[in-house]
Amino acid sequence: MALAPRVFLTAEQIQNRVRAMGVQISADYPEGPLYLISILKGAFMFLADISRQIKTPSRIEFMGISSYGRGKTSSGEVRVTKDLDASIEGHHVLIVEDIVDSGVTLTYLMNVLEQRRPKSLAIATLLDKPEKRLRPVQVSYVGFQIPDEFVVGYGLDFAEDYRNLSDICVLAEDADITGPGNRDRGAGTGEKSLNP
Ligand code: PRP
Alpha carbon of 11 to those of 4, 17, 146, 149, 165: distances in Å? Predict the structure, then answer.
């Protein structure tokens, strides 16, 4: 089946917003080091861009998170698959995410990181889908609030495809979203995969 990504946010719109977020974050964190912690894989592109817009001296860290069950439901299990390489105790920490859907990932991660006694802990996300929230999460910096559409590009995938697009796109409605394999990031009720 052919999938036709439709541009939802252009690269220029994204870059303009990322620049503004960088100005705001730089002002809010006058002193470094600021630890920018990004969750693999989807946030890699946002991290690369926002980190270059933040003037505060920053350090870059990655974490891997995996979830079990059918999508990340409120009962879904979450665990760390790749941990930080450094201690964050006593440091300002900003989690850099590509998208907040259910809030399950960030609720878990905030709990994990809070136990490590950072000086401060906050969240920056490029995209926020408030309609999908199952767990309340306090997000300090939001690039765009978006409706419940399945978005890809700029790091976001559909069955591992489309991450390298510069724009953020919505997949055409004829995309098959009934199969197993991918995360619940769209308008459907189940998990998603690209069926041939
Ligand atoms: C996405 C995104 C967040 C998470 C948000 O990751 O990067 O980490 O989902 O969803 P939630 O608010 O419902 O928990 P995904 O699991 O798709 O992995 P990926 O980043 O490797 O694509």
Answer: 18, 10, 16, 18, 9
Kindly list the protein residues whose Cβ atom lies closer than 6 A to any atom of ligand 1: 39-43, 72, 97-105, 157, 183, 185
Domain assignment of residue 188, yes or no: no
Q: What's the rounded mean pLDDT across residues 155-176?
A: 87
The per-residue b/e assignment along 110-125, b for 16 or more CB within 10 angstroms, e otherwise, is bebbeeeebeebbbbb
Q: What is the mean pLDDT of residues 148-175?
A: 90
Q: What is the pLDDT of residues 112-140, one digit of tens each?
A: 999 999 999 999 999 999 998 999 999 99
- 195 within a domain of the structure (yes/no): no
* pLDDT per residue as tens digits for the range 86-97: 999 999 999 999
pLDDT at 178 over 90: no
- Is 101 one of the catalytic residues? yes
Catalytic residue selected from 49, 101, 128, 157: 101
The total of structural domains in the chain comes to 1
Query: For position 2, what pLDDT does the model report?
Result: 63
* Structural domain harbouring 132: 6-170
Entry pTM: 0.86
Whether 190 is in a domain gets the answer no
Q: Give dist(CA 196, CA 187) in Å, integer.
A: 20
Report the atom number in ligand 1 closest to the C-alpha of 107: 14
Q: How far is the CA of 131 from the centre of ligand 1 (A)?
A: 16
* 48 occurs within a structural domain: yes
CATH number of the domain that residue 121 is part of: 3.40.50.2020
